[in-house]
Amino acid sequence: KKKKKKKVQKSNVIFDVKPYEAETDMVALEKLVREIAKDGLKWGPAKLVPVAFGVKKLQITVVVEDEKISLDELEEEITAIGDGEQVQSVDIAAMVRVG
Fold first, then answer.
1. pLDDT value for 61
2. Predicted pLDDT at 1
3. Residues near 78 by beta carbon (within 8 Å), at least 6 away in sequence
4. Which are the contacts of 84, defined by CB distance < 8 A and separation ≥ 6?
5. 0.85 cut: is pTM over it?
6. What's the pLDDT at 4?
7. Which three-class secondary structure string do you get for the chain?
8. Residues lower than pLDDT 70 in the chain
9. Which bin fits 93, alpha (ψ -120 to 50), beta or left (φ > 0)?
């Protein structure tokens, strides 16, 4: 009998990354978020979404392997960007289990 290969459980997650102020360079912030690299993590498309008073949030998609990546730790890493001075909050806007 052939051993069945264990299926890798993945999640497709959309993060809302909100800055402290409207003046935050969101293009640079996206670049810093994408610099977070780990085994089992693959960044996808992103867009800027208006919130209020000129503030925009970064909505970025990531596919993670559930066994390798802790979403809590990833959120903490994003929040810590720029010595914690740039990102006010990181929320999971949507999450779907895939394959």
1. 98
2. 56
3. 15, 17, 33, 36, 87, 90
4. none
5. yes
6. 62
7. CCCCCCCCCEEEEEEEEEECCCCCCHHHHHHHHHCCCCCCEEEEEEEEEEEECCEEEEEEEEEEECCCCCHHHHHHHHHCHHHHCCEEEEEEEEEEEEC
8. 1-5
9. alpha
Note the pLDDT tens digit of each residue in 74-94: 999 999 998 888 999 999 999
pLDDT value of residue 56: 95
93 near 63, Cβ under 8 Å?
no
Backbone angles phi, psi at 3, to 5 degrees: -75, 135
Report which of 86, 74, 92, 93 is spatially closest to residue 35, judged by C-alpha positions.
74
Is 18 buried (19+), middle (13-18) or exposed (0-12) by CB count in 10 A?
Answer: middle
Residue 6: per-residue pLDDT = 72
Residue 78 — φ and ψ, nearest 5°? -65, -45
